[in-house]
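Workshop exercise sheet. Pairs work together: one partner reads the sequence aloud, the other fills in the structure field after running the prediction. Swap roles for the next sheet.
Pair: D.N. / O.F.
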Amino acid sequence: MTRPMDHVYDRIGTGYSNHRHTDSRIAARVSAALGDAARIVDVGAGTGSYEPADRSVIAVEPSRVMLAGRPPGAAPAVQAVAEALPFPDDSFDAAMAILTLQHWRDPMRGLAEMARVARRRVVLTWDHRFYAQRFWLLRDYVPEMAAWEATLATFDDACALMGAVRVEPVPVPHDCVDGFGGAYWRRPECYLDRRVRASISGLALLEDGTADRAMSRLADDLRSGAWHERNAEILDLDELDLGFRLVIAGK
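Structure field:
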């Protein structure tokens, strides 16, 4: 079971910035997707990962905890929700939303608001079916997380709601420094750390000891070598497609 999503990062956001950092390889893909946009709004901005430093950015974030975690020098931020962006029509060249769509109360309205205020929309999300089948953590240890994520707005919803879109894969580097759910696919021992799991909403929100039991099984498999045997085909890869996708749309 998982907790409800209301104010999720007000509950789990403390310490989030310790493990969630901009990965330069993913940032390059986001920057390319933004094209020539000079004025950008980052919706569901969190602590500011992937906000391009060489452009004019305004961040929108509902969680006071996440706003407090934005580093010195980060783009100016306002406390608001995606569904009611506090800007006039056509205020920006592009609106970006990075691994946040799944937390919105009304994804249709939020994406419509992004289209209202900007001529281009760039959304980083994931194909949950691909992710659940491809990623050993969900497949072998926390299918409860996969089942919960199947109820959230992710890739299929973004494509359906954004109209004509371009889709670009975002493979995850083996040494990814942004500690989202799939970041440690080649470093399984990292998931045993409670502090790491606290920065991954899908694990942090699991209840009833589900995550602890799953990590106990993972620890046993790492000690016995069973994990390495079962996942031998990924151990020498530099990056892995886990289903993360950039969905890009213009007006």
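Discussion prompt: The CA atoms of residues 171 and 192 lie 23 Å apart. What would you look at next?
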